[in-house]
Design a protein that fits this description.
This protein has 237 residues and is α+β, with helices and mostly antiparallel strands. The protein has helices at residues 29-49, 74-81, 112-118, 132-135, 138-149, 169-181, 199-209, 222-226; strands spanning 4-12, 18-26, 64-67, 87-94, 97-103, 107-111, 125-129, 189-190, 218-219, 231-236. The strands form three sheets. A six-stranded antiparallel sheet has the order 6-5-4-3-7-10. Strands 1-2 form a two-stranded antiparallel ribbon. The chain has a two-stranded antiparallel ribbon with strand order 8-9.
Length: 237
């Protein structure tokens, strides 16, 4: 008769704790191979889960990141601008941790993983200024941070007005590059330049403006910045 007994295994988890796994072991070669396979799979799983997003791609200060927002206005923005991307932000490296500086309610720094998970299907695209290594010097990055700091804590601009009183996502990133470096990432447009014929768009416009839609208001859209010839795509998932 084959001898049988229990054996306890201790595994270190990715959270630093210790888990005890009790395994019923028969001293048979096939069973032992299966147990080894299970243990190896657990270790690999823990290892894969502990990988950070930044280990997949090296984000740099000044990178511009785009996603499809799940907000109530996202679909209207996508239709009006003919783009799948409705939200964006700029990458900040703070103490070797990656954050997205974004205009939501209010303007703030958001940890990268939290920002990604908030988007539709966690999909995102990263774009970078062409010739960034020569343009985004330490001094210029400091200028960009200084400009960006002026907007922190400001309310989100639901009306897409071209002012600094309130601010929306693409406006924040556009103004940081423009005011710090003199670079215009994307073409400024007016509301009347967009496709306002769809019922979803019209409904959102009436909700925001009533009968007084400011068709001549200057606007910078995520789509315009996404399509800028000053940027190159460096990563998408």
């Amino acid at each position: 008769m084959i001898k049988e007994k229990y054996k306890q295994l201790f595994l270190y988890t990715q959270f630093g704790g210790i888990r005890t796994i009790t395994i019923y072991i028969r001293y048979h070669a096939l069973v032992m191979k299966k147990i080894h396979y299970i243990i190896l799979s657990l270790i690999l799983l823990i290892s894969c889960q502990s990988k950070s997003v930044n280990s997949i791609f090296h984000f740099e200060n000044g990178d511009i990141i785009f996603q499809t927002s799940k907000s109530s206005q996202s679909k209207a923005i996508q239709i009006a601008t003919k783009s799948k991307y409705s939200h964006m932000g700029i990458v900040y490296n703070v103490d070797n941790k990656i954050y997205i500086y974004e205009a939501v309610q209010p303007v703030k720094l958001t940890p990268l993983t939290e920002w990604i998970n908030r988007g539709e299907n966690s999909h995102y695209v990263v774009k970078r200024l062409i010739n960034s290594k020569n343009i985004l010097t330490f001094e210029n990055l400091i200028k960009m941070r200084d400009i960006g700091d002026r907007f922190i804590g400001k309310n989100y601009d639901l009306y897409f007005e071209w002012s600094d009183k309130r601010i929306y996502c693409s406006e924040l990133v556009w103004k940081i590059y423009k005011e710090a470096l003199g670079l215009e990432i994307g073409k400024l447009e007016t509301l009347k330049d967009f496709d306002l014929t769809n019922n979803i768009v019209q409904s959102k416009m009436i909700e925001r403006y009533g009968d007084n839609i400011p068709l001549n208001e200057l606007v910078i859209s995520p789509a315009s910045m996404f399509n800028s010839d000053k940027l190159e795509t460096v990563y998408k998932n």
